[in-house]
Amino acid sequence: MLKKEIARLLTGFRQFKEKFYAGEDSVYSKLQNVQNPKTLIIGCSDSRVDPAILSSAGPGELFVVRNVANLVPPCDPDGGRHGVSAAIEFAVVNLQVETVIILGHSQCGGIRALLNPENTIAGGFLQQWVKIAEPAKTRAIALASSDDSVPLWRLCEHESIRTSLENLKSFPFVAEAIEKRGLTLLGVYFDIEKGELLEFNEKTESFTPIPY
């Protein structure tokens, strides 16, 4: 007998199949041999922040990479296992996406782990991973010291998006795509409490609400 949660997922799959596989001209009849997404979203693994749900995107519209704290490591071609870097390369070089979005969010557990490692239950893998955002932590602490109106964790969530954008530019194929074909990089922050999206403005170095 299937566990209740697995049964619920299978019910969801049946509904998915009815919606996207019905008829000869179904969505997946067109997608079965090719994908052509225009946007790469690098988001957090957090269960509340699914890019496809947030954007109401359909199958084939988004190429999505998710990890703890929506981090992009700096380019480091040392032959190691670079899952995030490989996915970015595939999206930019092979799929020729037009836009790359770093999608951060409020109440991020990964950022909390970065700020308060002593309170983190998880072991060494998590702590090693979130060290990618150490520059963001440093900047956030400096900002908080001069203005305590914004919580440190929110400042760090914002700054981590900036760090990932900076790291993206360290990949030669990303820099080339920006220069030669106008690849666009965006930093977006989802405020879970307010249900709002904010965009990073590179000129003002601040996050402002996105009208919708």
UniProtKB/TrEMBL annotation:
What is one GO biological process annotated to this record?
carbon utilization
How and how many cofactors are bound, per the record note? Answer: Binds 1 zinc ion per subunit.
- Keyword set, alphabetical order: Lyase, Metal-binding, Zinc
Q: Which organism is it from?
A: Bdellovibrio bacteriovorus
Q: Which InterPro entries match?
A: Beta_CA_cladeB, Carbonic_anhydrase, Carbonic_anhydrase_CS, Carbonic_anhydrase_sf
> Which molecular-function annotations from GO does this UniProt entry contain?
carbonate dehydratase activity; zinc ion binding
What Pfam families is this protein classified in? Pro_CA
Indicate yes or no for the key word Ion transport: no
Enzyme Commission designation: 4.2.1.1
Q: Which reaction does it catalyse?
A: hydrogencarbonate + H(+) = CO2 + H2O
Q: What is this protein called?
A: Carbonic anhydrase
Protein purpose: Reversible hydration of carbon dioxide.
- Tell me which family the UniProt entry assigns to this protein: Belongs to the beta-class carbonic anhydrase family.
- Tell me yes or no: is Zinc among this UniProt entry's keywords: yes
**What are its cofactors?**
Zn(2+)
Where do the annotations place Zn(2+) binding?
A: 44, 46, 105, 108
